[in-house]
Design brief:
The complex is a heterodimer. By secondary structure, chain A is mainly α. Chain A has five helices and no strands. Chain A has a single domain (16-117), classed as Fumarate reductase/succinate dehydrogenase, transmembrane subunit (3 helical TM bundles of succinate and fumarate reductases). Chain B is of the alpha+beta class. Chain B has two domains: 5-115, Ubiquitin-like (UB roll), CATH 3.10.20.30; 118-249, Orthogonal Bundle (Fumarate Reductase Iron-sulfur Protein, Chain B, domain 2), CATH 1.10.1060. In chain B, 33% of the residues lie in helices and 17% in strands. Chain B has ten helices and seven strands. Chain B has helices at residues 45-55, 90-93, 118-126, 150-157, 166-170, 172-176, 183-193, 201-208, 222-226, 233-249; strands spanning 5-17, 30-40, 75-78, 81-84, 98-102, 109-111, 114-115. In chain B, the strands form two sheets. Chain B has a five-stranded mixed beta sheet with strand order 2-1-5-3-4. A two-stranded antiparallel ribbon of chain B has the order 6-7. In chain B, a hairpin with a 2-residue loop joins strand 6 and strand 7 (114-115). In chain B, helix 8 packs across helix 10 (233-249). The longest helix of chain B is centred in the last third of the chain and has 17 residues, at 233-249. Chain B is elongated and about 65 Å long. Chain B starts with a strand and ends with a helix. The chains are: A mainly alpha, B alpha+beta. At the A-B interface, helix 1, helix 2 and helix 4 of A face strand 2, helix 9 and helix 10 of B.
Chain lengths: 122, 253
């Protein structure tokens, strides 16, 4: 006896992947924000601890992880605007184009951040 | 083998149920059963299922009626996607030599490929998806409705639904929320909200402006992606959300 398989084939289209990305980036944001505020609070509580953290955060591996975060947040921002347009403006049939534009925006922000992080752009 | 066959055989995996659905388990466990089916020209998925039932296993249960894409009876999960089987040709879905056919998702399995459509149509009733004529209009004279008026065109876009439940089976929100009315019922309500002959479009709107209605849609758009009639329930639901929002702003929700 087996269970019916999950319907992944039916989900394999841009709008569903855009939903999944929006959900994943949103959950990442929920985890990131408290940690971000905790780190910032070190400026008041323990500045030397904050300096040690910032030195660690300057390593290439952390910068790459940071770039992934920036891409996710840019995707959440652009995806959120796309959803607001979908729900509050008259329907447009170019939904897949909007998804592509939102993805392109997120990747562009990520590339700019990556170049900036490694000293290419100030 | 007749002249219509090209002598190739298709390996077909069909879901066989071990039990009917219960209140706790809409889709109980079962097993895949495999047959070799001769390939024919212009063969549809429904042709394949019918061939197996007539030549290999008369106990195989499935459902169809019109065979021409009008009645919405024969939908099944084909290669992992809900589709109308009478209008789905093998050549459009088989890449290689294997075909999998299962019952529709989100509906109780009666037996094998036949699902109980009652919950699907019950939700149309719950959504109030029924035309209520405006009794203030003189019933003896024909109410003038311009076919090219904006409201009529908006209603027309969504009106060709055949009730096949492909969108309902494709919808993840239906899978996640048992009380969610689903794309087809909400799409139907959208046609009524825009129908100039309706007695009270706002009542229709109020019936679906809740958490079990349009507000729960996550805009996955699987319904629009897979609707065999190329309707767009996501667009209809977005319209319902917009009008519900305006109604709430006006303090009449």
């Amino acid at each position: 006896m087996t269970m019916l398989q999950k319907p992944w084939a039916a989900r394999h289209h841009p709008a569903w992947w855009a939903f999944a990305l929006h959900r994943i980036s949103g959950l990442t944001l929920v985890i990131f924000l408290p940690v971000h505020l905790l780190v910032l609070s070190q400026a008041l509580d323990d500045p030397r601890q904050l300096d040690r953290f910032l030195t660690w955060a300057d390593t290439p591996l952390v910068k790459i992880a940071e770039t992934i975060l920036v891409v996710l947040f840019a995707a959440h921002f652009a995806g959120g605007l796309r959803l607001l347009a979908l729900e509050f403006l008259p329907w447009q049939n170019s939904q897949k184009t909007f998804i592509a534009l939102a993805s392109g925006f997120a990747l562009a922000v990520g590339i700019v951040f990556l170049l900036s992080a490694f000293g290419g752009v100030d | 083998m007749d002249n219509n066959s090209d002598q190739r055989e298709l390996t077909v995996h069909i879901w066989r149920s071990e039990a009917s659905a219960s209140d706790d388990d809409l889709q109980p466990d079962g097993a895949w059963q495999t047959w070799e089916v001769p390939v024919r020209n212009s063969q549809t998925v429904l042709d394949v299922v019918t061939w197996i039932q007539r030549h290999r296993d008369p106990d195989l249960s499935y459902r169809y009626a019109c065979r021409v894409g009008m009645c919405g009876t024969c939908a099944m999960t084909v290669q992992g996607k809900p589709r109308w089987t009478c209008r789905t040709r093998i050549g459009t879905v088989v890449d290689g030599n294997e075909l999998t056919i299962a019952p529709l998702r989100n509906l109780p399995i009666i037996k094998d490929l036949a699902t109980d459509m009652a919950p699907f149509f019950d939700k149309w009733a719950e959504a109030g998806a029924q035309f209520v004529p405006d009794r203030n209009v003189d019933q003896q004279t024909m109410a003038p409705v311009k076919p090219d008026s904006r409201a009529r065109r908006t209603a027309d876009v969504a009106i060709e639904c055949i009730g096949c439940a492909v969108c309902y089976a494709a919808c993840d929100t239906v899978a996640w929320r048992a009380d969610y009315l689903g794309p087809a019922a909400l799409n139907r309500v959208w046609t009524l909200v825009n129908d100039e002959r309706e007695a009270s479009p706002k009542e229709h709107l109020k019936a679906v402006a809740g958490e079990s209605g349009c507000l729960s849609c996550h805009s996955h758009q699987s319904c629009a992606e897979l609707c065999p009639k190329h309707l767009n329930p996501t667009a209809s639901i977005a319209g319902l959300k917009r009008k519900s929002f305006l109604l709430a702003l006006a303090g009449r929700s």
